[in-house]
Amino acid sequence: MPLKTYSAVLGVALLGLFGPAPAGAQDGAIESLRQTGKAFSAVARKVAPSVAFIQVEGAETAVAEDAWPFHDDLFRRFFGDDFPSLAPQPRRAPKPRRAIGQGSGFVFARKDDTVYVLTNHHVVENAARIRVRFQDGREYDAALQGADAKSDVAVLKLAAVGLPALKWGDSARLEVGEWVVAMGNPFGLSHSLTTGVVSAKGRTSLGINDYEDFIQTDAAINPGNSGGPLLNLDGEVVGMNTAIFSRSGGYMGVGFAIPSNLARAIAEQILADGRVVRGYIGLAVQPLNAGIVEAMGLRDHRGVLVNQVNKASPAERAGIRAGDVLVSFDGAPLEDGGQYRNRAAQAKPGGRVSLGLVRDGRRLELPVEVGRLDEANQVASAAHAVGLTVRGLTSEEARQTGLAKAALVTEVRPDSLAARAGIAPGTLILEANRKPIGGAEEFAAALDQAQGGVTLRLEENGRARYITLRWR
User: Fold this and answer.
1) Active-site hit among 199, 226, 260, 313
2) Which one of 3.40.50.720, 2.60.40.1120, 3.20.20.70, 2.30.42.10 gives the CATH number of domain 379-470?
């Protein structure tokens, strides 16, 4: 029976058993709804002056135009030379055009006559001009103070007075089922408010950002909402609306917001230093599955398996080994690799964290001195020129392939040199510029020493081949 039909039948049955609700009870229910509506209205009045409509103009690109929608050969194929008056004319000179985009943002800080607006990096990426408009009609040119593509956070700066900054809320205290309000400019419809609840927290591994810890909400989020605030009923920012799950391009009940604690930390680093510095531990991890749990004699699936420890890394110096199972980070339980990566990145370089792990059935707590990610010799950054991320082989992978030395391709950046050369995840790199490659560090070193190009010996499906990638 359909849900609505079932609800209607149930309502009739209850009325038959208990009779109509007393007038006082009905009045109380209506008053409760009225108060809920007033709470949403109060949030809208409080935050609307600080919410921004952002319009972005991209750099000019030259677009050539034909006088005829088809090229000459196609025209002649169907019409021959019988219609000279309809024949295509020579291509016109290219016309410069600008790409136009839009999104949302909100004032989060002020200093004297300078106002700072937070939005998503993807809203203002490659912008040649950024215009910011507020509810009272005031409009300003904004400059990009700084951005972090990995977390999709950007800070804009503009000269203005009288624009209030929103108050930050603590996203860690947000609970599933709690009411939240989203405000922004979906489809360019200025200062639209939608309501819903927190559907879930800690969503990772969605493939939206490099660093993910999303709040999931059913408050309607649509194109144009990106960068707008997600608020609690006190009007405090608990998140920044960033993405939706949709098969239609529009709202389907699943939206994602960057939690305020993460967005605030990134924004404050950008204001203070103009860039984001992340912590570095030097581990690669993978999920636990039933086979690993059984083979290692673990009690449950909680935690992540260390499959690689980088040489000379903080993790190696702390005594962490491949095969250890990480179960906590500074006392907080670890559920998946996304959680580990976020916490490692947010750890303060130069500080210490405690990693809880299980090794040979024993629980250990190892202190780790946090390094700086931008100073770490990581293949993810060293291999950016060719678009590859690799890691060393595990002992099991080495046994299965029969290779003592190799690097395994784990990720290929779309439209990169590697992607165009047909390299795919799972490919094995045996040599780089005629030197054997035994892991991620050796591959990074080979790229660092390369002079604008690298020749790789690959193995794919048991067959070897050479390719050369050049970036200069």
Assistant:
1) 226
2) 2.30.42.10
Alpha helices in 80-139 (DSSP H): 121-124
CATH topology of domain 171-273: Thrombin, subunit H (2.40.10)
The SS3 assignment for 290 reads helix
Tell whether pTM > 0.70. Answer: no
> Over the stretch 276-318, which tens digit does the pLDDT of each residue have?
888 999 888 888 888 788 877 777 778 888 888 887 889 999 9
29's tokens: 């229910």
Determine contact, residues 326/355, Cβ cutoff 8 Å.
yes
- Domain 57-85+97-159 carries which CATH code? 2.40.10.10
Q: Is 226 a catalytic residue?
A: yes
Which residue is it, tokens 């960033």? 242
Does the annotation mark 113 as catalytic?
no
| Residue that wins the pLDDT comparison between 417 and 329 | 329
Is 152 one of the catalytic residues? Answer: yes
Residue found by looking up tokens 């149930």 in the block: 10
Contact 327, 336 (CB under 8 A): no
Domain ranges across the chain? 57-85+97-159, 171-273, 279-375, 379-470
With 80 as the cut, is the pLDDT of residue 48 above it? Answer: yes
Instruction: Report yes or no: 149 and 135 within 8 Å, Cβ to Cβ.
Output: no
Residue type, position 381, single letter: S
Whole-angstrom distance between the N-terminal and C-terminal Cα of the chain?
66
Between CA 345 and CA 347 the distance in angstroms is 6
Catalytic residue among 50, 104, 148, 152: 152
Domain 279-375 listed as CATH 3.50.50.60: no
How buried is residue 16: exposed, middle or buried, by Cβ count under 10 Å (0-12/13-18/19+)?
exposed
